[in-house]
Queue: 3 jobs
Job 1
Amino acid sequence: MSLRMVLLKAAYIGCLALIMSRATLGDKLFDVTKYGASTGGSFDSNAKAFLDAWKALCAFNGPTTFLVPTGTYKVGPVSFKGPCSPGKNKVKFHGNLVAPSSLDSFKDKAWIEYDGLHEITVEGGGELDGQGAEAWSKKKRNSPISLRFINIISGRITNLKLKDGKGFHIAIHKSHNIVIKAISVTAPGDSPNTDGIHVSGSTRVQMRYITVGTGDDCISIGPGSYNVSIANVNCGPGHGISIGSLGKYQNEENVAHIRVKNCTISETTNGLRIKTWPGSPASEAFNITFEDINMKNVANPIIIDQDYCPNNQCNTNAPSKVKLHGIAFRRIRGTSSTPEAVTLNCSKDYPCKDVSLVDIVLKPQVSSVVQKVESMCSNVIGIAFGAQQPDPCVGKH
């Protein structure tokens, strides 16, 4: 190659690198401290500064970054609404946010909410502290969600910590093409209704590399959820990974194409669970797969419960009308803290169909009072393959 060609190639690579660096640096920065936020500010003044920064960002035509610098900021409830001008928007929480402790400060469903946006990324390594202790003591359901995506198309939540939410820590609702990755969620094991991540009415949701320990479901999948993928989750304490509850309300949408893979569940009150209410309106949940799951001293490691009725809230003994079919449990291994390692309790009016148990090996926890584990089935049409411990309660191939 001639010297001229070498120089031209070097110049081309240099120009390309410069263009790429300018594209990265080209995001318009909206620093909340430039709009009045401060680590010494009040909940209300910081919330106003956050919204003022967002209003300016939303009006800008091009890629943007909403920045919360390092430090700890008291912030009241804020809803970041769209639509915004075209351009990819990033939110970087380098600092930590602290919520008001009193429920009286909340008039809506969420503390930090993103609504009606396209291409939004929330990241940054900071922490959202929901200050939930006062709300837990009141045992009130539907307490504010710490971080909510609603009506979002193409969104990401990554590299954040959430703790002590009053209610759900993260909720995804009526959204499409969402990625949740590298998230840590913590709350006391006795904190009520503090699900780590709840998904409802949404499609194409991916969750990866998540650590959750709370007082409720680590991850829960509600009505209207399609094409949800969950992998590499460490769950516990809490109530495990759940589909449901389903069938509590009229006109619920179906749930389908859910895959849970490569997870570890430890010291939880349930493992992999599908729960539907008795006397429910008709709906369906199908094509649901749990595979390659490690259980560590888990109560009820595998459970389908179609008589789900917490706190005796039900006013009927009628069977559930949620039809469950195409349910697979594959390579589920570990230890159970209860004699019932596998419980498949399905509706007598609409038996579970096409249920498969493949290579299930669940043993009593060492040094446990439980000496033997068993399977229990009712109203199930299914089959078992491969290694099975305990003996399966469906026919073995």
Note: The radius of gyration is 24 Å.
Job 2
Amino acid sequence: MEYLEDQTVKDYDSGAILRFAFEFFDTFKGLISGLFLSPEERNVSRQFFLNQNSKCAMQIIEIELSILYEVLHTKAQMVRCKTGYIFRSVSFGCILCAFFSFFFVKKHSFRMFDIRLSYGLLISAMVLDFISLNFVILSDWTVRGQNLGKRAEYIESKVFDRRRWSGSVSQYNFFTYCLNDYPEWINKLAEALRLRSILEAINEARHRSSKKFRKNQEWHFIFSELREKSWTAKTVAEGKRICLQRGDGILSKCENENLRRSIQDFEYTESLLMWHIATELCDEDKAEDGPSSENIDYKAICKLLSDYMFYLLMMQPTMMAPVSGDWKLVFEDTCGDQEILV
């Protein structure tokens, strides 16, 4: 991947972006099993993304994560190997044999309903095989190491334009959860029937929502912040120090001691909850912010990221396991305090 270091900011064609995504997938897939990047691999990756704009970086990361999902949760690699093609051919051949055998057999003793049902099932099986073959052709793996000839540009564009995710992020709000609880009699009934945990799970799912993730707003902001920090992380030690920051970098420029204490004197989840509540209170302030020079709605970005982080704590606690601690206890205490204040 040495050639990647020489790439500069520009809009690549779809085929180049697909190939870059596979290159980085091969580099980073070892991280899943606990392996580490070599200094050379780290520097190549860092230098490449420092020289890209947010649009190009987003496209590469989308494809890379899509490939990772297919490897971990589908049979993508098995289907596209020699053995997979053999089994697929045998399967489709068996369906064709069954169809023609049934077509030429005498069916005088069969009921019309059974005949139509059999034809329907056999034709459906062939249609599903054709659809599956179309997915195989128009997949990311097709452009990898394949000589596509004159149709290369067409196939690459079709693969590139394929939808890979919903384009939205999950949201969860502390006040929505606490202020829209079930009536007291329902809670008591669930407690008596020992269904309290089920009721809480339903309540948590009931308040979950999602918002559109705007590439020209949220993603541009995130990528710009990451790129700015990456410029300073010239060593692994410096990179680890930046990754351990919980807002220290920006609050170090602030003279308000109480704001710095909200990070320094509390556990990660307590600090995150406090800032989530603070973000919500600021968002309720309907005063219009002055337009930024970059035409970016920072208030909406903060709200979206705050609700997403709270969603991870509530609905995906395993992702926050190393830092969550006694998160549930802190959350229940805060909910109790909020109910008293309201």
Note: The two ends are 58 Å apart (CA to CA).
Job 3
Amino acid sequence: MAKKKVLLMGKAHSGKTSMRSIIFANYLARDTMRLSPTLDVEHHHVRFLGDLVLNLWDCGGQDAFYESYFERDRETIFRSVELLIYVFDIESDCPEKDFDHFAGVLEAMEENSPDARIFVLVHKMDLVAEEERELILEDRKRLIEESCLGVGVQHFQCFGTSIWDETLYKAWSEIVTNLIPNIGVLESHLSDFCRICDADEVVLFERATFLVISHAQAKKDTVADDGKRQHLLAGEEKDHEDAIEAAGDGAGNADAAGADESTTDKDKQQVNIMSTSPHSTSSPTPHDPSLEGGVSTPASPGGNATLSTNPSNTNNQQLAAKAPNQLTASATPQFDAHRFEKISNIVKQFKLSCGKAQSQFQGMDVRNSKFTAFIDAFTANTYIMVIVSNPASSNGQDWGRGMPQKASTLMNIQKARSHFEQFIPRS
């Protein structure tokens, strides 16, 4: 079992414990308000991907503690560190002192753990006006770079984060990926799997945290083989976030549905979101729904508990309003850099809601007119998401074609499980 020492440092009330609790202890963002400030150093052993254990040192950020870290406990704190995560509060009222502490931490790291990887999180970015965020973040990154270079630290990564959006998942996905020893081999095999499935994208999530640990994307020449498919991809990216978010929006209702079911059947159930084809009230064509999704539980003596969602899809409505000659395909699909982390956030919240309803999350299928997203349990420690473009249809009559596609994709996932167990350690 591999143990990695991780230091989590930053000034008091910068949000260190909140982010740790969201990522590793399944807290909702709103629940972190009740957390107390960290006193001195709190030790947490967090299991990740089975046999990888993060020995997480959550260090209190009060001035008195920093004096201890730099003097009496210097070697104890900073020796044998694999990874440093330093958190800045973007709203800090004393940034000069924050940078003094940061410089002191970097000096201690250079003395005791010179090979450690360093990540800097500029936190609470949600408190900055949206139109100013990029400019303010770049300015803060410049100051951080100057501090690092001033003590001889050449390599570090910096992220702007907030507990209220996907940026937290983006940063922590990058952090934990650096601790996976065979990540290059895993990425190579995932690319092969993406090609074999004829998928547009494949994403691998860690089971407990739902952090992204690897992904693969179809090569451009493969995607460009079919002009119609290229047109689908151009608008697919935003749609697959919206569709999964819409399915996840049912999470609050899933609590109630699952609670009703639990009164008749005390056994835990597996929850699957299955694609269906009800008529969309917002679409004039019955067989061309913008999104269909439902939550269903297996049959039990007490009956079935079912939740269906059929939200409107703003993108599809806007496209439908345009004349056919106004619909032009982009030469290159535009992908949101945070798309995987947005899905991490959405699906993890839904997974937690299933747990509150005494049901076990197994997976979900989300379909709209352009694509199908399959999310399923994969290895003992991961989930996988496979994005596949739907067969092109001009009249909305080809809904049934999705069934063979679904069957083949799920079979590929099933057959690949034992192969990928070789590269993803079991607990």
Note: Residues 96 and 193 are 50 Å apart (CA to CA).
